[in-house]
Amino acid sequence: MSTEVRVPTLGESVTEATVATWFKKPGDPVAADEMLCELETDKVTVEVPSPAAGTMGEIVAQEGETVGVDALLASITEGEGKAAPAKADKKPDAPAQKDSGGGSGESIDVMVPTLGESVSEATVSTWFKAVGDAVDADEMLCELETDKVSVEVPAPASGTLTEIVAGEGETVQAGGKLALMSSGDGAASPAKSEDAPAADSAPESSAKDVEDAPSAKKAMAEKGVSRDQVEGSGRDGRVMKEDVAKAGSASKPGSSAAPAAAPAQAPRAPSPAEDAAREERVKMTRLRQTIARRLKDSQNTAAMLTTYNEVDMTEVMALRNQYKDEFNKKHGVKLGFMSFFTKACCHALKEVPEVNAEIDGTDVVYKNFVHMGVAAGTPTGLVVPVIRDADQMSFAAIEKAIAEKGARARDGKLSMAEMQGGTFTISNGGVYGSLMSSPILNPPQSGILGMHKIQQRPMVVNGEIKARPMMYLALSYDHRIVDGKGAVTFLVRVKDALEDPRRLLMDL
């Protein structure tokens, strides 16, 4: 009996994905719910489990192919899968086919380890060992970089590194091959390592063991500098682009006598090649590409406008200082400003429902609930986890949800479901010191509130000038659905609730 493996539901507004990695091959035995492959969308990576136990049959969608929702990926045949071992020999269990250790021992594959939830590929950043080096079990061989964390790869056994399959700068998939090791003493390897000290007289042999930076190779070609003229400052003598720039300036004839011979000579403008040698080109991560595309789409689609106001934070700060210790002791979470702003926005959205609505073709969809998006900055870019039904939550529940979502965002563990379905967004640029900015809408939402830095400013209070902790508020909204009156009313209601927090308790 054959069972079909199909593309699962990919989430709101996501209709297609790319097959990133197959963990199984035809003939491999699989257990129920065992991961078969990973799909990449423009938001997150989706793992596809096996719908039943059996044997991996035909793979219909190969790696790199684009598939739609519910498309056929493969088939599972119930049974023992007797043909599996023969095909599985191509995987890490059959390294003997690639024994490059000169017959000195069994060949061992060094594979890319599991990179973490929703991470399917990484870039090889640094090799700590060169071909021919002796390594101990669990000694670090190289370091991989993902869009979330760095991963160190240990040696699976003691032996000799015989071949590096993925060089520095190359992108590798989870479960891919990085290198080959020989479990023996590696009799052919010492000859390579013994030649290394003679690199002064034979730089070509050094270049084979230590791969120069790609930017350095390009700079050497552009400046006409040979490899033996450059002294590498990188790991194990690796030549970096800065080394090429230094070698190029030092190799100019008469450079030391130039100041005396022509003291009045005007400084020479750097050539494009010299500027290029000091540049660094880094490929955008998939997350950053998605952020860039969505933000630009938002500007192109919505009639975006921003209105501003300012709020006196005196009362909120006083209330927070008075109860923060008791709040933390009872609820186990700190009392911050975000719960006050979330509550204030929920009250204002009830009065101005069009800010909590969205446009769907020629229809306006009003949301009778508030799923609050809270923008969070991470090392890899901006993400917006969603707190569902925030209008029904207490201060403590909101603070706990914000803390938990923020931690998951920083660790790169947010799922697609946790970033979907938001009806309104709050972005707090004040934590980075922003005094005023215009936030960009998070489509298909029609409103986003920007919080900013709290700063002491002179204000007139009851006819007297006093220093007050003030914050600028910015509401960006879609003018196709929200009129200026509604936007201003929304901001005024948020301002009133924050300047007199008792209104939140009284539902005013």
From TrEMBL:
Region of interest (Disordered), ranges: 80-110, 180-280
Domain Lipoyl-binding intervals: 2-77, 107-182
Stated role: E2 component of the 2-oxoglutarate dehydrogenase (OGDH) complex which catalyzes the second step in the conversion of 2-oxoglutarate to succinyl-CoA and CO(2).
Organism: Roseovarius ramblicola
Functional pathway: Amino-acid degradation; L-lysine degradation via saccharopine pathway; glutaryl-CoA from L-lysine: step 6/6
Family classification: Belongs to the 2-oxoacid dehydrogenase family.
Cofactor entry: (R)-lipoate
Annotated Peripheral subunit-binding (PSBD) domain residues: 211-248
Tree of life domain: Bacteria
Sorted UniProt keywords: Acyltransferase, Lipoyl, Transferase, Tricarboxylic acid cycle
PANTHER family registered for this protein in UniProt: DIHYDROLIPOYLLYSINE-RESIDUE SUCCINYLTRANSFERASE COMPONENT OF 2-OXOGLUTARATE DEHYDROGENASE COMPLEX, MITOCHONDRIAL, DIHYDROLIPOYLLYSINE-RESIDUE SUCCINYLTRANSFERASE COMPONENT OF 2-OXOGLUTARATE DEHYDROGENASE COMPLEX, MITOCHONDRIAL-RELATED
Low complexity composition-biased segments: 187-205, 246-273
MF terms in GO: dihydrolipoyllysine-residue succinyltransferase activity
Entry protein name: Dihydrolipoyllysine-residue succinyltransferase component of 2-oxoglutarate dehydrogenase complex
Top EC group: transferase
UniProt EC number: 2.3.1.61
Record field: compositional bias (Basic and acidic residues): 206-245
Catalytic reaction equation(s): N(6)-[(R)-dihydrolipoyl]-L-lysyl-[protein] + succinyl-CoA = N(6)-[(R)-S(8)-succinyldihydrolipoyl]-L-lysyl-[protein] + CoA
